């Protein structure tokens, strides 16, 4: 029997409901593959702010670091929304744990389950065959650069007014670009061998450096992988125009935030997409969607993205590819049989095929 | 007779071909409305680099400043692509003239001509009724902040390697946010009275300041206009999910670059979209598309976005709303009659309805 220690971070909103289904699936897989998963729950985000005053308590970080993998559900909600720099915000927990665990690679696969192809707002012939992997740099750029606000004084400021100003810094170092480029090329080798590197080299100095480094790594270490550059604005267009053409898309943190959400929406079923955040130590797995406070506590949230984040955990942290394939097959079967949660039901879904969070988790477990 | 002085900037690629059609339309409108347009041509972008070594020659700026409006076609092309900070780049001409003329407001209307509704890769019921105005801040943010690259030395750098690093600065001042917010609220009052302000306030300090200022201006000066905030990543999704819900979208420079191109692509006919860049003096009008070097010189480029940028010029610089309406009606009629350039032809377009650049310009002029 293998033993793995999992840190659970239910977070806010629908988080506690969906993470329970992820655990259910992990337990079922563990029983089948002679692997024991032990869990320690910890606080992150809004619930951590309420309990401790900070979005990422030291204790949470200690538990995460001591674990073999972290399973996160979602953080945030209107309760904690604020623009006051002095107040804690749930996102600080997410950003803090990414930085503290050194999770510089965010992998966001974008695929369409055949049964849900019609959920897309794009025409079926356009989304047919969409299968890309967004590789987002996750611990650099605007997210972690120096930022400040200056509250101007009466009579100061360029326009003679009491002028505030603020800045954020987009900063990258060579080794940060090198290592994320390697992740993208490695991913491409296991896929269709093509990398699209996204930047804004016609404006940003960081993008010009990014482009040079990605090409050097490509030329020197991955001459077998096709590499193209695409400007971020053009990428935002091409994702809608010809999404099926993309294989691996690699980009810096902020562009990756925007483009990965755009790409996710192209599938029309955000409730089905998971992500992995990897570094050199413990990795973290989470759904691509948020904490959906509006439906929290109702038992109707879709647990499938959380369950698919467990699939990614098995693949990337525990090298359990077969078990991961089992989960994907089980989810596909449940969808093919017509089972739906409220968010992914169509106009033709019969009422008795619409199930809640727990029932959906049970359906997947039954098919494992 | 009224007299207006227009600065023409044909630029690169298809620029010279399409701007000629814009001029043709201006002349036709001028004749009808007793207005004389006089033109002075100047160099901007790649052609300016070739002729003078710089993308924005002083002479060009002088001509532009002395004119009542600037009509730009497009700049750039692979010939001038470089990541070498020491070499001039065509985009510097565009960015330079925006800054020098103080063109802080970029208006990008996104609408769908009924005859071209099927060109979208989105389902017809999703794009039906799309009619939004993207208001992009154009002279601040990452585009104009301090930027630098440091070429590391052997033995230096965090990882003991010869580490380069680079940074760009996202900076905003209070008055910059105030004035673009007012532009958005004013635009909304002439439309459906709703503003969506896009930021990344859960991460960026500039976004938190942006959000506070936009709300203050809204509360104090435009209490009649509905105001909502949307995070940039969520906006990238909602533009695909429910594009018809947006009225006015206001955002900072880089987010505006990405989102306005995404919104443009939703229509499926980028060759039909124009933009206006306004400041306190001479304004500039240009198509939303690029210089399309691959089809330059072939006489097949679509001149309609350029012609629609003339429409915007008449509306915003010369208060000639009736003449502007004429142009829009003429373009609509030409499309309704089935005339197409190569980029907007459909699978069912008969070959004899596909026309070149000059013929398309003539068709519009005939219907004026
Ligand atoms: C919540 C937010 C800070 C976060 C981000 O911007 O990275 C989220 O949007 C994501 O993509 O994981
Ligand atoms: C050419 C480039 C510098 C420019 C920009 O990013 O502003 C273009 O994409 C635009 O949107 O006008």
UniProtKB/TrEMBL annotation, chains A, B:
The entry's keywords: Amino-acid biosynthesis, Branched-chain amino acid biosynthesis, Cytoplasm, Leucine biosynthesis, Magnesium, Manganese, Metal-binding, NAD, Oxidoreductase
Binding site for substrate: 98, 108, 136, 233
EC number: 1.1.1.85
Broad enzyme group: oxidoreductase
Source organism, top-level taxon: Bacteria
Cofactor note: Binds 1 Mg(2+) or Mn(2+) ion per subunit.
GO biological process: L-leucine biosynthetic process
Necessary cofactors: Mg(2+); Mn(2+)
Pathway the protein takes part in: Amino-acid biosynthesis; L-leucine biosynthesis; L-leucine from 3-methyl-2-oxobutanoate: step 3/4
GO molecular function (one): magnesium ion binding
Cross-referenced InterPro entries: IsoCit/isopropylmalate_DH_CS, IsoPropMal-DH-like_dom, Isopropylmalate_DH
Residues that, per the record, bind NAD(+): 290-302
Cell location: Cytoplasm
Domain Isopropylmalate dehydrogenase-like: 5-364
PANTHER family: 3-ISOPROPYLMALATE DEHYDROGENASE
Similarity comment text for this entry: Belongs to the isocitrate and isopropylmalate dehydrogenases family. LeuB type 1 subfamily.
Role description: Catalyzes the oxidation of 3-carboxy-2-hydroxy-4-methylpentanoate (3-isopropylmalate) to 3-carboxy-4-methyl-2-oxopentanoate. The product decarboxylates to 4-methyl-2 oxopentanoate.
Name the record gives this protein: 3-isopropylmalate dehydrogenase
Organism: Gordonibacter urolithinfaciens
């Amino acid at each position: 029997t293998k033993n793995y220690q999992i840190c659970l971070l239910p977070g806010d909103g629908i988080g506690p409901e969906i993470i329970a289904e992820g655990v259910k699936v992990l337990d079922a897989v563990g029983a089948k593959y002679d692997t024991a998963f032990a869990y320690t729950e910890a606080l992150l985000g809004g619930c951590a702010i309420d309990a401790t005053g900070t979005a990422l308590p030291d204790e949470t970080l200690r538990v995460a670091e001591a674990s073999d993998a972290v399973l996160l559900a979602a953080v945030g909600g209107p309760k904690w929304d604020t623009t006051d720099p002095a107040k804690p915000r749930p996102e600080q927990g997410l950003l803090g744990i990414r930085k503290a665990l050194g999770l510089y690679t965010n992998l966001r696969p974008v695929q369409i389950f055949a049964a849900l192809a019609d959920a897309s707002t794009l025409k079926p012939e356009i989304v047919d065959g969409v299968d890309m992997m967004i590789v987002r740099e996750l611990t650099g750029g605007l997210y972690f650069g120096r930022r400040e606000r200056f509250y101007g004084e009466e009579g100061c400021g360029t326009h003679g007014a009491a002028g505030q100003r603020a800045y954020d810094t987009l900063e990258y170092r060579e080794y940060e670009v090198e290592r994320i480029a390697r992740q993208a090329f490695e991913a491409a080798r296991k896929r269709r061998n093509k990398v699209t590197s996204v930047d804004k080299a016609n404006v940003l100095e960081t993008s010009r450096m990014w482009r040079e480094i990605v090409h050097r790594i490509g030329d020197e270490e991955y001459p077998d992988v096709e590499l193209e550059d695409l400007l971020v604005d053009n990428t935002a267009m091409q994702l809608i125009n010809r999404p099926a053409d993309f294989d691996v898309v690699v980009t810096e943190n902020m562009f990756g935030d925007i483009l990965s959400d755009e790409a996710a929406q192209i599938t029309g079923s955000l409730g089905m997409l998971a992500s992995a955040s990897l570094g050199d130590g413990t990795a973290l797995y989470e759904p691509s969607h948020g904490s959906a406070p509006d439906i929290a506590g109702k038992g109707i949230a879709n647990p499938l993205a959380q369950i698919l984040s467990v699939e990614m955990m098995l693949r990337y942290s525990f090298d359990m590819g077969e078990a991961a394939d089992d989960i994907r097959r089980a989810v596909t079967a449940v969808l093919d049989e017509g089972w739906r949660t409220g968010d992914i039901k169509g106009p033709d879904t019969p009422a008795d095929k619409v199930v809640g969070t727990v029932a959906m988790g049970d359906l997947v477990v039954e098919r494992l």
